[in-house]
Amino acid sequence: MIKGNMHTHTRYCDGKNTPEEIVKVAIGKGFTYIGFSGHGHTSFDDSFCMSAENEERYFSEIKELQEKYADKIRIFCGIERDVFSDHFTLKYDYEIASVHYIKCGERFYDVDGSLKDQRQCIDGCFGGDPYAYAEEYYKTVSGINGNIVGHFDLLTKFDRNNDIFNPKELRYKKAALSALEVLLQKDMVFEVNTGAMARGYKDAPYPDRWILEEIKRRNGRVIITSDCHDAKNLDYGYEIAEKLLTDIGFKDFYNIDFMR
Hints:
Helix content: 25-40%
Strand order of the largest sheet: 1-2-3-4-7-8-9
Order of helices and strands: EHEHEEEEHHEHEHHEH
């Protein structure tokens, strides 16, 4: 069975392991491929991303590993670029496009930093209206470009029980589906991301099941990823994600045809 992970972070940004350590774990798990996706630099927040110097080193090391392990596993050198990231010039194999911030005036609020940050943004920028926040988030998501859509509904990270965003609320659903349609038209692949599960925030992957059902209904493509920041979680929750997608009707979870 083809199996791999295209959303992988290393010590070059906010990950725990070196790239080679991760490659060895991937080989040990029988992975067919591994894709590295270091966080592209954001000048207003460098707490989690690669510096320009680190990006050059990262790029060079992954390229070296591609040659070193060519007979054992396919290795791809990618980047996770936030919609607010600085422009990059290196020629990556692929790009994960994500939204990690809501911009309010001149300030950038973390979407996935903490529940406190999220509520502060909802109250301070959107008059306490979580659906206005959601509309701004999904409007921002609709502006991303790349090969893979990163954690489409990241705003739900701290909302395990739908206490903030009710997915049945018309405004929320309309905002999410509007962004979904735009990204499908761009022919982007939606990752089914188990990262928040590994870190104890969610019981199921991003995006929510109802969104995956809409992707399937619209003939969209998906790929399972772990958003790995620690090699021990390289395939965390894959069985849960596979069953979920099978129940919905998807048949291909690890297709990397978009790389060609």
